[in-house]
């Protein structure tokens, strides 16, 4: 804005324009930070869901392994009961 007789920008309007520019840049930075935050939030929840699935899968595998061990221990006990006691000491 040329408000004075010498064709120079008025200091007050120049400061206003400078502040407007700074505020605009600040708001742009806020928008970028918000988008980054949203992306990280999405990744976090995606990783939580993945970890939940992995944990459930591991729990299922542990449960299955415990059942298998119990079955094998039962079979071992049955087999040992069929073998005479002398066979263990020879």
Task: Describe the secondary-structure layout.
Elements: H1 11-82, H2 86-89
Can you characterise this structure?
With 90 residues, the protein is mostly helical. It has helices spanning 11-82, 86-89. It starts with 10 loop residues before the first helix and ends with a helix.
Defining key terms:
90 residues; mainly alpha
Mean pLDDT, as a whole number?
88
Low-confidence stretches: none
Please tally the helical runs, counting DSSP H or I stretches of 4 or more residues.
Answer: 2
Beta-strand residue fraction:
under 5%
Judged by helices, strands and strand pairing, the structural class is mainly alpha
| Count of individual domains | 1
Shape by Cα distribution:
rod-shaped
User: Sheet with the most strands?
Assistant: none
Ends distance: 110 Å
Q: Spell the H/E element sequence.
A: HH
For the CA atoms, what is the radius of gyration? 38 Å
Q: Can you give the helix content as a percent range?
A: over 70%
Quick synopsis:
The chain is an all-alpha fold. The chain has helices at 11-82, 86-89. The longest helix is centred in the middle third of the chain and has 72 residues, at 11-82.
